[in-house]
Write a structure and sequence with these properties.
Layout: H1 2-31, H2 33-40, H3 46-57
């Protein structure tokens, strides 16, 4: 019994941590960058993205 209880508890903590990261990654994607991207107009093509990057580099 001692051989499997510690790895099981560690694995449960690992699953909890992965669920926490997964949930807040996708929740944060909508709440943090969503208003910023929609407010300034999202970049839709490679050419416009490249032009935007070149403007910021200069």
């Amino acid at each position: 019994m001692k051989n499997w209880i510690y790895p099981t508890i560690v694995f449960m903590f690992f699953l909890y941590a992965m669920a926490f990261v997964f949930f807040y990654t996708y929740k944060g994607q909508n709440s943090y960058s969503g208003s910023r991207v929609h407010g300034s107009g999202a970049t839709t093509s490679v050419e416009s993205f490249q032009a935007e990057i070149n403007k910021r580099i200069k």
